[in-house]
Amino acid sequence: MTHIEQQERISLYIDNNLSDEKSSELFAHLAICNECRTYMKISMRVRSHIASEELAEVPRTLDRRVLASVGRGRAALRQRSWYSPVWFTRVSIPLPAAASIVFLLIIGSLLFYPLLTPAQQRRVEIPSELMARVPSSLQRAF
Amino acid sequence: MDPLSDEQLVIDLCNGSMDAFEELYHRYKRHIYMFCLKLTGDRSLAEDATHDTFLKMHLNIGTLNDITLFRSWLFTIARNGVFKQLHKQQRNGSFDEESVWSDQTPLTLTEQNDVATIISLCIDSLKPEYKEVLLLREYEQHSYGDIAMITGNSESSVKSRLFKARKALAEKLKPYFK
Asked: Is the pLDDT of residue A87 over 70?
C-alpha cells in the first residue's frame, strides 16, 4: 500500500470513518513510517486548532437587520392577509370578467333587437300537426 | 425547562411563530456567520450572506420536507449564497480540481512564527471548494452525507476533497513541524 493510500486512511480515521480492522493496519504502518506519522500529526494539530477556535461574534447591526427584515416581511403579509389569497384567486379577476360578459350580452341584445324583422320578432308558432302529437295534459305548457 | 428542539422550533416557525424564528436565529447565527466569514474572508460579505440566509430560511421554511434535515438545509442556503457571491466576484469562475490553493504562497506566512497563526493563514488560503468541506467537517462536525447534501456533491467527492485539503495543509505546514 502506498503512502498516499495510507494517508487517505488517516483522513478517514480522523473523521471516525475507518473500520477497526483497517485502523489496526494503519497503526502498524504508522509504527514504521515517519512520513505518514508526520501527516497524521499535522492533520490532528489542524483539527485541534480549528476545534479550539472561538466562533466569531455576530455584529449587533446584523441582529437588527435580520429581525427588522423578517418583521417587515411579516407585516406586509399580515396587511395582505385579510383579502388574500381568496380575493386575488377567486374574486378579483373572475367576478369582474363574468360581470363584463353579462353586461355586454344585455347591451348587445338591446342594440340588435330593433334590427330584427317583424317576422323574426314574432313568437314562433308550433305547427298544429306537431301540437296534435303532444299529449293533451302537456299542451297547455306550450 | 429544556430548550426546545430544532424540530419543534421548525414546526412552530411553520405555524408563524416569530419567537421560534428568533430562537433559531440566535441558535445558529454565529455558526452561519463564522462559516460565511471563513469562506469569504470578508466581514461585510459574511454579514450580507448571513442576513440573506436567515431571510431565505424564514421565507422558504415551508419547502423543507424533512425537518430533521433543518441544520444541513440552513448550511446549504448559506453555502449557496456565498458561492453565488464568490462566483460573481471571480472573473474566471471555472473550478480547477488540480489546485487546492487560492493563493499559492501567502506572503504573510513566512513572516509568522506562531504555528496557530500559520495554520489559520493556510486554511484561509485554501480554495473555497476545499475550505468548505474542511469547515463543515471540522467546525460543524457534519457527516460526509450531510456535507455531500450541503455542497451538492457525492460522498466520495467529499472524502476526496477532505483528503486533498488535509494533504495540501500538511505539505504546507511540514516545515513548521520539524
From this structure: no
